[in-house]
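Work package 3, deliverable 3.1, input record:
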Amino acid sequence: MRRLYAILIAAGFVYMMLSFLGVVPGYGNIDLCSRVSSSFLLKDVSEQNAKNWLMAKGLETKSIEKVYGEKNKEDGCANVVTSIVVNYRSFDTLGEVTVLFTAALGVGLILGGTRRKKYGLLPNFVFRESTRILVPLIILFGAYIFVHGHLTPGGGFPGGTIIAAAALLLYLADEEFFLSKVSTGALEGSMGGLYVIAGLLGLAIGGYFLYNFLPTGRVGNLISSGIVPIVYTFIGLKVGAELSGLITDLHSEEG
Amino acid sequence: MVYWISIILMGIGIYGLLTQKNLFKQLISLAIIDTAVNVFIIAAGYVEGGKAPIYTKALPSFLKGAFVDPLPQALVLTAIVIGVGVLALGAALLVRVKEKHKNLDVENMKGVGE
């Protein structure tokens, strides 16, 4: 009987959502030029040039100026998603990092212990030895991901997660391995503090919180887009330390 | 089509939340709903034939229909991180529940409702 009611409720929800599908434009059929995203893509958020808007709406798309390789395009990020996450909506990202911090803090409070939990399993020899080779490479790859966050797909959050994967590999390969909570906590706290300090510097120099006060350079260069790669490095190290601490909490017990 | 798949996934998640008695399965149902909503939001920003919104040598300027919408992707990036936080906190709570009540099944827990 309960399953019947559950099916009815779920089907009602699905029906309600499907009836909303008439309102949203069809899949793959949207007109980007009529959305706000076009001004993010044109790097035209603070000026909202009427000329650019008209050009984007009209057919003269060929005459729109190049973005790649040019200078002074607001933040100078080649990756527009990073541009939104770390430049235009950076305050939101600060809140997001705080949410992740609170979750890690909660896990630490619930599961926290001071001793490594032993599972009594001896890992395979090949696994143990190959971990020693793999861990530096994984950490290097994570660092590559978050340093190139403004040029390629990825950024601080995926890069930090990859670094935490290296920590997880170490935990699985060695029964004795235990990351000290002081180190992950110190890295996490200092990186969060540096993020806020970067924001306050922007407040002092440019007049609003997290203002992009460094020169932006040419779009597509590694040294470009002002504080975006710096902030993404902070975020990457913070997320990596946070998730490593979370894995430490999951593998520890009291005693 | 992707809209349909994501909405049906949401329905599956709600069904799982309503029927499953195992708390871990309920947590997995929440994760399924989370993923389904993310897929829906990403699908709402898809442009037919569009590439990832990154300026490269091959795509140096904004052309109509060349890029997908970057804004939903940026919002879903936030949502994924918060989903990870929820999942980790829920799993940690479940570890403690299992230690205290010996069971994750809501009806068979020891020391509850007796």
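Residues 112 and 151 of chain A are 38 Å apart (CA to CA).
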